[in-house]
Amino acid sequence: MPFLHSPALLLLLLFLSLPFSVQSQLSLDYYHKTCPDFAQIVHDTVARKHATSPVTAAASMRLLFSDCLVGGCDGSVLVSSNVFNHAERDAEVNRDLPGDAFDVVTRAKITLELSCPGIVSCSDVLAQATRDLIAAAGGPSYKVELGREDSLVSKVSDVEGNIPKPNQSIDELIKLYTAKGFTIQEMVALYGGRTIGFSNCKEFSDRLFNFSKNTPTDPEINSKYAEALKMSCADYEKNPASSAYSDPITPGKFDNVYYQNLLRGMGLLASDHALVNDPRTRKFVEMYAGNQALFFKDFGEAMEKMSVREVKTGGKGEVRTRCDAFNSINHH
User: Fold this and answer.
1) Distance between CA atoms of 35 and 285, rounded to whole angstroms?
2) Of residues 237 and 8, which shows the higher confidence score?
3) What's the CA gap between 294 and 38, in Å, rounded?
């Protein structure tokens, strides 16, 4: 049949197979033969780190989000040979001691290099470690597909406009997440990750001290909560490290209390509070506040999707020897 050979049809067939081919190069048991101890090494590294520094789970999640939302999940965010991660910190993504997340990835990678040198990518370590850390904090254990390659470039200019900011409106947040291929419900489920970790006072100080000319404090913040936050953040201008937990009730536990807090007027950032003020998102907040099992299921599925966003495979990237530098730099 001659029409089968038409160029347009071939292009269509090629196009249809493209997204599948990238995904199909990832697999759950990618290191089964080449690095059989991969899962155990990451798990053990995570267990040690979580025991000494419980904020690592939140830090790792922020790091994964900023990696996957900016250039795809390719470990760009780990590279220190340029200003990417400094600008990225200035953009206030990694609100939870990013050093802890870099540290856990570096430690796991060093052990992996001894066990199976040159095999495991840094982006796979970050994805697996994040999942294990969330589980260690009491959250769901979702599937992590493996086989990502690490990026060959990392540009500071890619950051702006690609990651959510603390004071964004709900319209801006929805626009950002839907442009990245997430539904509104997936966005609300991912925000539930803020059940662990904290934010710097400067990110929400306007809601406490400078809300408007006649009303210094946002009247929609729970009044007792507002008073407690003002005490925690009294000297935030002099002490840039002053911060507050994003879930003050069970700060170290991964649960659905974040959503329950939002309904009580205890959303910390303007963007947290925005989720309850818009009917498009409020219905999901109410749903997850009343059903932790559903939240865990939806969060896990949204994280599986986030973790494979625009991955590099098939030689489009490399397996870095050190996570903070490209191999071409390592070799000099």
Assistant:
1) 41
2) 237
3) 30
